Description:
Elements: H1 16-19, H2 22-30, H3 49-61, H4 65-77, E1 83-85, H5 106-111, H6 122-126, H7 138-142, E2 150-152, H8 154-165, E3 169-170, E4 173-174, H9 180-184, E5 207-208, E6 222-225, E7 231-235, E8 240-244, H10 258-270
Antiparallel strand pairs: 1-2, 3-4, 5-6, 6-7, 7-8
Helix pairs in contact: 2-3
Amino acid sequence: AQAMSHQAGLHASPPNDVSLDWDRALDFIASGTPAYEPGTSTGYHALTYAWVVGGIVQGASGRHIKDGIQEEIAGPLGIEGEMYVGIPDGVEDRLAWLQNPPEPTPEQAAQNPLNLLPPDHDFFKAMPRTGGLDFNSIEVRKACIPSANGHFTARALARMYSALANGGQVGGVRLVSPERIPLMSTVQVESPDRVLFIPLRKSIGVFNGGKHGANGPRETAFGRPGAGGSIAFADPEVNLSIAVTINKMQSTLQAEGPTFEICELIRTELGVNG
C-alpha cells in the first residue's frame, strides 16, 4: 500500500536509456535507495511508478503488465485497440501528437510556482526540466512506461472507470469484486507531497476527490490526472466515470483549466456536483 501510494521514496527518474528498457528499469527500482524511509513521507513517483507497480504485477502474476492490461481489462471490456501501454506496430497513423503549451509571458512565468523551486528540488528529480523523454517519438511510444506513455481513447478510459464506479462491473463484465472498490478509494496519505509540493489525498495508485479539483467534491472519487491536463476517474457514490484526453498540453499540476471546467460542467448538468 505504501509503494502504491507514492510513499516508497523512489521518485527520482532513471536515465532515458534505462526508461526505454523494461528489464533495466525494473532493476533500477529494485536496486534503488529510497530518498526517505518508506512510509514516513510521500513524493509523486511521476515516471518511476511504472516500474514500482509493473514489478509488483509481474512478480505476483508472472505476466508482463502489457499482457495483464490486454487480458484483464481491454479484452473483457471490448476496448481492444483503444488501450495500450507501449503501442504495437500498425497504429502509428491513429496517434494524436502532443502540443506543448506556448511560452509563458514574463508575467505568467513569475506566477508559475515551479520557477520558485530550487534546481535540486524533488520535482526536477522526478520530472527533469531538460533532457527528458520525448513522448511524441515513436521510440518512446513503443516502450512500456505505464506511468507515462499510455495510449488510450477517452471512451476506453471512461469504460474502464465506469466498472469501478458501479460496484466493479459494467455491461455484465466484472473487473474487480464489489468489496474492492471501497479499498481502492481509502486514503493512505494526505500530507504535503515532496515532489508536487502541495497536500494530496492518495489511495492505492490513485488520487482522491474531496477538494477543489477535477475529481470533484467527494473524497471517495478516485482516478488520475495526467501530464498536460488529461484525466480519468470514477465517482462511485454517484455511479459516474469521466475521461478527458487532450493533446494541447496545459501548464497544470492537477488538471486545472479546460479539463476541470469540462468535469464541472458534466457534474453540474447531472446534478451531482455537491
